[in-house]
Specification:
The complex is a heterodimer.
Chain A (H helix, E strand, L loop, with lengths): L11 H16 L6 H19 L3 H16 L8 H5 L7 H14 L4 H14 L5 H13 L6 H11 L5 H17 L4 H12 L4 H14 L5 H4 L2 H7 L5 H18 L8 H6 L7 H11 L7 H10 L8 H14 L7 H9 L4 H17 L19 H14 L5 H12 L4 H17 L4 H11 L5 H17 L5 H10 L6 H13 L7 H12 L5 H17 L1 H16 L4 H14 L12 H5 L23 H5 L26 H8 L4 H13 L3 H6 L5 H12 L2 H16 L1 H26 L5 H25 L3 H23 L5 H8 L11 E4 L7 H7 L10 E4 L10 E4 L7 E6 L12 E9 L5 E10 L5 E3 L4 E4 L4 E9 L7 E6 L4 E6 L10 E2 L2 H18 L1
Chain B lengths: L1 E8 L4 E6 L9 H11 L8 E3 L4 E7 L2 E7 L5 H19 L4 H6 L1 H11 E2 L2 E2 L4 H7 L5 H10 L10 H4 L15 E14 L5 E15 L5 E6 L8 E3 L5 H7 L1 E4 L4 E10 L33 E4 L2 E3 L8 E7 L6 E16 L1
Parallel strand pairs in B: 8-17
Antiparallel strand pairs in B: 1-2, 1-5, 3-4, 4-5, 6-7, 8-9, 9-13, 10-12, 10-16, 11-13, 14-17, 15-17
Classes of the chains: A alpha+beta, B alpha+beta.
């Protein structure tokens, strides 16, 4: 802006000249510039003086001029001593500029740089987080090996700083230290491990970046943080999102089994590629046992989806590649729209995106077919964009759209951009070979182009026609004759060579023309391009073999010319041909086969996409763009055959459990499963994966109850047809089993119960439908829905642990102290219960049966983990200022033992009183009951009140809809419980547990 | 990630260099110059150029090449998107982004670049945050600074950096509170020789200029939100609310920003009387003495229609929560030709 802004500009008259002079000294001639050079020294002298003055303004001026020098790439290292003195300046801008200088030159002046270290060490303890952070930044950027221990210490301390901003900087410092001294790796990994646990979104991206640079192979460090990273992802800053998504893609490929149906890939590449993915999916599904996706796998796919709407092209691309590499093929379709949208951005973004689309469109053209027209070329596109679009259009061409495309290509051929026109001709050739219906049309079109005014177009056409004719010889004598005439006019060597080769190959079909062409060529041989000379030799040889009467002399003349050619390739070729075709003593047996050798049937060249083999690189990477493995490229592994233990991703609670049961994790997991699958021990042992789906199926089969079977069938068929079900597989499996159990119990009861049972059954089928739809909902809703889900799962596991270890429940107290318990909840209520882990209503159902069992007393225990996560019941905007949140305290409900207790917090965000808050009309599914809270007379502005209520969800995840009313308004709200919230925590010994299990089994058979 | 940055003008001079790790010699740019020569035109220089030890990723804007030097695998879009963000930031700071302006403000440029990347990884890229860290030069501030010796550099961590709304700073104050929204739609189309449409699509954006005191929470609703199905948002927009209610709910950044962009492949134009078909006519004449082009050229059209969004998108209302004053609100519609080509 004005020259005032940087005072050094005021003297720039002289300054500029001296700088120019300096450049001159370094590059051109030292002699003439000598005078200027010395004045440059003087100038630095005056910079030194300014730096030593006691006025900040002079120092600042000096520093600004020095930074200007650095920016221009000029050497300012000799000022180091004068600059470094100001490292402790009170003026923050001087300080910052000194930092810039230090980072630039410390490496060169290590001893002097050490003088500044103590300043940074002091600054690391500054109360201002910005100063702490920037001190760490600079300290870690000074590449002086001697301070490695100091850096290590600083990083360790900063990684425990209260400010997430400082911790973020610590994560960055890890990489700097690692590149300075790789020996520190182990210690740094410890810091990374610690920072990976950080819950701040500010830190997440940076620490994953450090992980990727320092220890990308330590995938085990991710397990425990996997779910957290998935859930934080939407809130992480955009650059961090890219890094995390790429890392999680790699992670997913090592930890989950393939969601792709076998044979998909084969069919993709095979002849059936016009078939849509869905068809294939259905087909294969019918044959295969249903695949259940790991919920964690689903979590990642679901939580990245909203990021397709990011404004940052890198984020969109990262999600797109994640879907491409890890989602079921039927779901990857959603990325196309977003990628096509990116084509509107800058040319560089277009370039990368188009490259990736090119690779994708080869394998799955269906994905981009609807967007065909988005790839139409505009005359204003840069050539590299045009050619990429052309590539994609070719990949997408099929019988249905080829005529439209050819019409479009016609326009391109006329383009002013000749390079592009040539590329279009190549493309037409490719379409002609790929789609047999249009081969002739294309060929005719290309022949027409032979009379084009532009030589490049003609030449390219010749080359392509040559390739096409090679595929269907015998029938194109006319075209060959036409092309032979072109030899008089066309000068482009490749085209000339192509024509000659073509005539040579077909010399018996054009017996009159071929010798004449050879004659002309013999005349011009010496002035031809090397490429053409080689083909003249070939043509001569072929004619000599087929028509030696007319061409013997001509050929010998050409061979003589070739013998003395300047190019050794041509001399070699000439010698070779002569030996082969002219029989003499030395040539031996080989010349007998000369004709067979020269006129053998040659395979037609394959015209294929240059993007064909690019898919072995992860999409969106630099390596993919360059089609070479870039330094530091991390290979995407193939899906494992069998999924590694998924329980490694369970968090905290598991670790507590470990203390009580010394058995290995795998065993725990196993026993956990046994609990749910009761009777089928065999199946359990054979089925190592967590395939609860099949278990539930077989169980219902065992029961042999037709209704039940219908239910589960419905479930599994649903599973195969719709995506969302596979995700809920585990849960719904569990759900089924519980209802199955309940039904069998109910059977044991008196007949009068039967009606009720029927009722319940129908509800169950409802609920499973409901559930699947709810999960679909939650796919958009990443934070609030997914978290409780995973929590509830881990909670489930703990519960089992507790049950098993009733006798030594002492450690539980430790657990309990971590929780915030509500007043009315007793630590553990001994209740006589026949079955573990059943919801309250189920317990009531079974109470009658309890007599028959021996006295197994099961304690309802406190939950091991209560999430503090709340769900929005009513947003303040839709509630006219009344906001309501609810959460599940996981306590036995005081309103009734079938009910699940829910706490609702009401907030008044308006500036008036809200009066008479109460529950209005209830719209509950049949069987569901609700205990409402007492009406609240009034809620002050900014006031908040927490009330409890209970809902009997009938053991289903059906939604409870009701109205939340104030004096003036009624708002429709609803609550839908995650499955986990319906369970009641109980504790029982392993012995009791087994007994219960046995009992269950017995009852099942009785019911049968 | 990003090792170094070189700024190169159209005549091939490196006029600024910045290194975030150890210094990479500027001779690495020779590979770039080679590629530039091969490409003949600036826009055909490949955005990714491999060299024996480095990779050069570049963007070309305002007649300047921004060349980033990379040493290891990195998603190329990551770097490209970042470089564009750098250009946007310069533009935001200095009004224009050109070689003379960058040279004049080299210290601010350096300070900004220093904050934008740490060890090659983006640190602060939100314009609002950067402006709190390093104040953009204004004539008044320059004068004041020269007299008082105060600086352009803030000494507090920008409040936004740590909050859940990193794009907005706290303590914003205006005497006139106003919020303006521009709905701008561009039509991209290819029309063939006979006048029939080969492709046509709308690229729309809603640009906002919001100058509101405090922490306003805005909602913007549309009369016909169903029209929007392919959208991308500024990070401030609450995605869930959009998904469930089709309402844009957001705490806006301070100043100018792009709230939303959308893409439409088909839209409703309403009724057209077949007797009176709307038509546009124009003539094109070649420069005197110019030779007739080989092939008929493609014509690029430019036009503007004020106060109309061609897709029919209409904003219903804008509400503000969280603050008590009454802001001045305004909405403007415009339709323009985007890449509108007529083949002849």
């Amino acid at each position: 802006m004005s020259s005032n802004s940087f005072p050094y500009n005021e003297q720039s008259g002289g300054g500029e000249a001296t700088e120019l002079g300096q450049e001159a000294t370094s590059t051109i001639s030292p002699s003439g510039a000598f005078g200027l050079f010395s004045s440059d020294l003087k100038k630095n002298e005056d910079l030194k003086q300014m730096l030593e003055s006691n006025k900040d303004s002079a120092k600042l001026d000096a520093m600004k001029r020095i930074v200007g020098m650095i920016a221009k790439g000029k050497n300012a290292s000799e000022l180091f001593p004068a600059v470094v003195k100001n490292v402790a300046s009170k003026n923050i801008e001087i300080k910052k500029l000194v930092y810039v200088y230090l980072v630039r030159y410390a490496e060169e002046q290590q001893d002097l740089a050490l003088l500044s270290i103590s300043t940074f060490q002091r600054a690391l303890k500054d109360p201002n987080q910005l100063i702490r952070a920037s001190a760490l930044r600079v300290l870690s950027s000074i590449r002086v090996p001697i301070i490695v221990p100091i850096m290590m210490l600083a990083i360790k301390e900063a990684s425990a700083d209260l400010s997430p901003y400082v911790r973020k900087n610590a994560a960055h410092a890890i990489q700097k230290l690692y590149s300075l001294d790789p020996e520190q790796k182990e210690m740094l990994i410890e810091v990374i491990e610690k920072l990976l646990k950080d819950k701040s979104t500010l830190v997440a991206g940076s620490v994953v970046m450090a992980f990727e640079e320092v220890c990308p192979d330590r995938i085990d460090l991710i397990h425990k943080n996997y779910r957290k990273l998935c859930n934080l992802l939407v809130d992480v800053e955009e650059w961090g999102q890219v890094v995390i998504i790429h890392m999680l893609t790699r992670y997913a490929r090592t930890q989950f089994v393939s969601p792709w149906k076998e044979g998909d890939e084969l069919e993709d590449n095979g002849k059936n590629f016009y078939e849509s993915d869905d068809d294939q999916k259905e087909k294969t599904d019918k044959k295969k046992k249903p695949y259940t996706m790991d919920p964690d796998h689903r979590l990642l796919i679901r939580n990245t989806k909203p990021l397709l709407q990011s404004r940052n092209a890198a984020v969109v691309m990262a999600v797109a590649q994640l879907y491409w590499h890890i989602s079921p093929k039927s779901e990857a379709g959603i990325i196309s729209k977003s990628l096509v949208r990116l084509l509107r951005s800058n040319r560089e973004v277009q370039y990368i995106v188009l490259q990736n689309i090119a690779t994708m469109s080869i394998q799955r053209k269906g994905m981009f077919e609807p967007y065909l027209k988005s790839f139409y070329v505009r005359s204003t596109d840069p050539t590299m964009i045009k050619t990429l679009k052309l590539e994609i259009l070719t990949n997408l061409a099929n019988e249905a759209n080829i005529s439209t495309l050819l019409r479009e290509f016609q326009t391109y051929v006329k383009s002013q951009d000749k390079q592009f026109a040539a590329a279009t001709i190549q493309t037409i050739g490719r379409c002609a070979t790929n789609i047999l219906e249009v081969t002739d049309t294309c060929l005719n079109g290309l022949v027409c182009l032979l009379s084009n005014r532009d030589e490049i177009v003609v030449a390219e056409s010749v080359v392509v026609i040559k390739k096409l004719l090679q595929m269907q010889p015998a029938q194109h004598g006319e075209i060959i004759k036409h092309m032979a005439k072109l030899l008089d006019s066309i000068t482009v060597p490749v085209a000339r060579a192509s024509i000659l080769w073509l005539i040579g190959e077909n010399c018996e079909r054009v017996p009159k023309i071929a010798p004449d062409v050879l004659r002309k060529m013999a005349k011009s041989f010496t002035s031809e391009d090397d490429l053409v000379k080689l083909q003249i030799l070939n043509l001569g040889a072929k004619l000599y073999l087929t028509n030696s009467k007319q061409t013997k002399l001509l050929t010998q003349y050409i061979l003589n010319l070739g013998k003395y050619d300047q190019n050794y390739d041509i001399r070699d070729r000439t010698r070779f041909i002569r030996q082969l075709i002219v029989p003499n003593v030395k040539s031996g047996a080989l010349s007998k086969y000369a004709k067979k050798i020269f006129l053998a049937q040659k395979p037609a060249p394959l015209l294929e996409s240059p993007f064909k083999d690019r898919d072995h690189f992860q999409l969106g990477t630099l390596s993919h763009t360059l089609n070479i493995k870039a330094t530091g490229y991390l290979e995407l592994s193939n899906w494992p055959e069998v999924a590694p233990d998924p329980s490694v991703r369970n968090v905290e609670v598991i670790e507590l459990a470990k203390e009580w049961t010394p058995a290995g994790k795998a065993k725990q997991e196993n026993s956990a499963k046994k609990f749910y699958s009761e009777s089928e021990e065999e199946e359990d042992s054979s089925d190592s994966s967590s395939d609860s789906e099949s278990e539930s199926g077989s169980e219902s089969g065992e029961q042999g109850e037709s209704g039940e079977e219908g239910d589960s069938n419905e479930d599994s068929s649903e599973d195969s047809s719709s995506e969302q079900d596979s995700e809920s597989g585990r849960e719904s499996g569990l759900e089924n089993k519980r209802t199955a159990k309940r039904n069998s119990k109910a059977k044991g009861k008196s007949d009068s119960e039967d009606g009720e049972k029927e009722n319940e059954k129908s509800k169950t089928s409802d609920s499973s439908n409901d559930e699947s739809s709810s999960i679909e909902d939650s796919s958009s809703d990443s934070e609030s829905e997914s978290e409780p889900e995973s929590e509830s799962e881990s909670r489930r596991v703990t519960k089992e642990k507790e049950k098993k270890t009733k006798q030594d429940r002492t450690p539980l107290t430790k657990d309990v102290s971590l929780l915030d318990l509500d007043d009315f909840n007793p630590v553990s209520t001994p209740v006589a219960l026949p079955t573990p882990a059943l919801s309250p209503s189920l317990m009531a159902d079974l109470e009658g049966l309890h007599l028959s069992t021996s006295s197994s007393v099961i304690s309802v225990s406190t939950p091991a983990f209560v999430p503090t996560k709340t769900h929005v019941l009513l947003h303040r905007m839709s509630g006219k200022g009344l906001a309501a949140h609810y959460f599940f305290p996981r306590q036995p409900c005081i309103f009734g033992d079938k009910m699940v207790s829910i706490q609702i917090t009401l907030n008044n965000t308006t500036d008036r009183k809200i009066e008479n808050i109460h529950i209005g009309e209830k719209k509950l599914p049949i069987g569901m009951k609700m205990h409402v809270f007492n009406p609240i007379d009034s809620l002050e502005p900014e006031g908040s009140i927490t009330v409890s209520m209970g809902i009997d969800f009938c053991d289903s995840t059906q939604t409870a809809s009701f109205q939340l009313c104030t004096k003036d308004d009624c708002f429709n709200v609803n609550i839908q419980p995650p499955v986990g919230e319906l369970l009641l925590p109980v504790a029982m010994s392993e012995k009791d547990f087994k007994k219960e299990q046995g009992l269950q089994l017995k009852l099942c058979t009785v019911g049968h | 990630m990003i090792h170094s940055l070189f700024l190169i003008n159209s005549s091939g001079d490196i006029f600024l260099e910045k290194h975030w790790k150890s210094v990479v010699s500027r001779s690495v740019c020779d590979y770039f110059f080679e590629a530039q020569e091969r490409a003949t035109e600036a826009e055909n220089v490949p955005p990714v150029i491999p060299t024996p030890h480095h990779y050069l990723l570049s963007v070309y804007r305002h007649k300047i090449f921004f060349v980033a030097v990379i040493q290891t695998e990195v998603p190329p879009l990551f770097v490209i998107e970042f470089l564009h963000r750098v250009v946007d930031t310069f533009q935001d700071y200095f009004g224009v982004c050109s070689e003379p302006v960058i040279k004049d403000n080299v210290v601010v440029v350096y300070e900004v670049l220093e904050e934008m990347l740490d060890n090659g990884f983006p640190l602060a890229t939100e314009s609002n945050i950067l402006k709190e860290l390093i104040k953009p030069p204004t004539i008044l501030r320059t004068v004041v600074n020269t007299i008082t010796g105060s600086t352009n550099v803030g000494d507090q961590l920008p409040t936004g950096q740590l909050s859940v709304v990193p794009w907005r700073r706290t303590g914003v104050k205006y005497t006139n509170n106003e919020a303006y929204f521009d709905v701008i739609e561009e039509i991209d189309a290819i029309i063939d020789k006979s006048g029939s449409t080969i492709t046509a699509e709308i690229q729309g954006v809603i640009d906002a200029c919001v100058k509101l005191t405090g922490m306003p929470d805005l909602t913007l609703s549309f009369m016909n939100p169903r029209l929007l199905d392919d959208v991308s948002f500024h990070p401030c927009v609450r995605f869930k609310r959009w998904e469930s209610e089709r309402i844009l709910s957001f705490i806006p950044p301070d100043g100018n920003f792009r709230l939303l962009s959308y893409h439409m492949l088909s839209w409703d134009v309403g009724k057209i009387n077949p007797q009176k078909l709307p038509s546009l006519k124009g003539t094109m004449s070649l420069q005197a003495g110019a030779s007739k082009p080989d092939e008929n050229p493609t014509i690029n059209l430019q036009f503007k229609i004020q106060q109309l969004a061609i897709s029919g998108l209409k904003v219903n209302r804008l509400d503000m929560y969280g603050e008590k004053y009454k802001p001045f609100k305004g909405i403007k519609y415009m339709t323009k030709a985007g890449k509108f080509q007529v083949r002849t």
